[in-house]
Amino acid sequence: MSESVLTLDDVGFDYGPLCVIDKLSLDVKRDELLVCVGPSGCGKSTLLGLLGGHLPPTRGKILRKGASRTIYQDGGLFPWLTVRENIAMGNPTKVDEWLEITRLSDFAGHYAHQLSGGMRQRVELARALAAETDILLMDEPFSALDYQTRNRMRKELVATLAERPRTVVFVTHDIEEAVQIGDRVVVLGTRPANVRKELALPTGRSRSPATPGVADAEQAIMEELGLS
Amino acid sequence: MPARVRSKPGVEIAAGGALVAIAVTAAAIVGDVYEGTGWLLLPIFLGLGLLIHGVARLPHDTKVPLSRIAEWVLPILCACVILTAWWGASALNMFPPGTVPGPAEVGDAFRAEVASGRLFADMIASLYRVSWGFLSAVMLAVPLGLVIGRHAATRAALMPLINFFRSLSPIAWIPFAIVWFGVGDPPAIAIIFIATFFQVVLATAAAAASVPKVYYKVAEDLGLRSRAVLFQITLPAIMPQLVTALRVAIGVAWMVVVAAEMIAVRSGLGFLIVDARNGLRMDLVVCGMITIGTIGIGLDVAFARLARIPSLRWGFER
Questions:
Q1: What is the DSSP letter of B50?
Q2: Which of 102-131 (A) contact B at CB < 8 A?
């Protein structure tokens, strides 16, 4: 694989006396889709805060090549702006192109509260990708959506990334999601969070549960999290 | 069969009311005051209980929108019923002489006031004072509210003071307003200012403190600088709450201008009422009340319309 874009070296983070992340080392390659899974409250959002540069690490070093954009679970769109204006906040010169790619052209003049949950996440994706930064961080971006929309959004994400490759760190508590789209899955342990297990997945994103190796990977993650 | 639990708030309130009535009466007898009038609370609470019982039985149809025609016709119809009752009662001489003027007298007073130009001049005088007091208060209150809402130390330092002054009725400042600003417009404007300022500071601070953190994280990703964050994130994010606060504040400001004009000035709708009272012209008093109430409705409608601005609607439709 190619060069590292994001490197965490023995990183730790404390909220006051509470050690949320400890001795976490991670290496993300260019255009890789890395999925982090872990139980809720394990410090996934804190990890993304560190990766995105919103939080300074208490210990260790973080190396970031290029800027990043973060997509949140819900509510990251500015409700006082239209779809077009929101995307323009990311990059005013590429709005029409991204409206096209995310099939939102007919909704350019709509506000967030007039859109469905899936559409809102597409706008978030368009705003983040229009900025053309190297790194995309996703904090459970589809977990507030219903099952069908969630599945469709995963496929759309994979398709969009095939066209416009980016380095993605995707955080989720959904193991099925992790094994479907990730190139590599990192299983995080609870507080303090660190890497419990790393799994490489079969090549080709957007897998089905029947794809060879997927069921095994899912089983391995479940075992690691003590769920099986 | 499982026991059916049915809440009967009306009955509970009526029963509570009976207990309160007995307690108050007992206290009054022991303290030798009120001559046992605490019993009067009993029918009041019984009535309240019945009312709540009735309201609880109303169907939940508030989500069904009224037709536009009904929205106009219903209030006009309601006003007509009250006018007719007023007219009928005065035609039948049901009010003791000199207590309630009839619609005809009030109509005559209206015509005379309009013809002399005095009513219009009074309206302008009152609106002028409200505009100055309200606008100057908003100009200062919004920035202060933003600082209080977004800066913990300032909030800790100033919130008790703001709450302290907010609890004081603006009317309590009238003596100081007169001593500091003399007579004429300035003391009245100062009273309006005080009535509006603390309210808007509190509303702005509450709104600014509750802006979702995710907007600021996105703004950081977008590389917005502090000035851009203020104008592109914080202000638009608090705007719906601010508009609601301004709507409440303009109502209070309008209410207070009348009180302020009863003391320090010789023009305006408040002065009209006080002057009419001194001359025992109840018809003129009612004329002033109707004008004040109508302008109040107008101001409220105007501020309610602000909520229809496209970039604000998200705050009212969720």
A1: H
A2: 111-113, 131
Q: Which of B218, B314, B316 to mutate to test the interface with A (most CBs of A within 10 A)?
A: B218
pTM of the model: 0.79
> Which three-class secondary structure string do you get for B231-252?
HHHHHHHHHHHHHHHHHHHHHH
| Element of type H or E holding B261 | helix B235-261
Taking phi over 0 as left and psi of -120 to 50 as alpha, with beta for the rest, B113 belongs to alpha
pLDDT tens for each residue of chain A, 228 residues long: 578 888 888 888 888 888 888 888 888 888 888 888 877 777 788 888 888 888 888 888 888 888 888 888 877 899 999 999 999 988 888 888 888 888 888 898 899 888 888 888 889 888 888 888 888 899 888 887 888 888 888 888 888 888 888 888 988 888 777 777 878 888 887 777 666 777 676 677 776 767 776 677 677 777 777 776
**Touching check for B308 and chain A: CB below 8 Å?**
no
ipTM above 0.90 for this complex = no
Spatial distance between the Cα atoms of A39 and A190, rounded to a whole number of angstroms: 7
Q: What is the CATH number of domain B117-317?
A: 1.10.3720.10
Distance of CA B130 to the CA centre of its chain: 14
List, in order, residues 6 or more apart from B126 with CB less than 8 Å away: B257, B258, B261, B268, B269, B270, B292, B295
Question: Could you give all domains of chain A from N- to C-terminal order, each with its CATH number?
Answer: 4-67+134-224 (3.40.50.300), 78-132 (no CATH)
Q: How do residues A68-99 score in pLDDT, each as one tens digit? A: 888 888 778 999 999 999 999 888 888 888 88
How many other C-beta atoms are found inside a 10 Å radius of the C-beta of residue A138? 25
Q: Domain ranges in chain B? A: 9-56, 75-111, 117-317
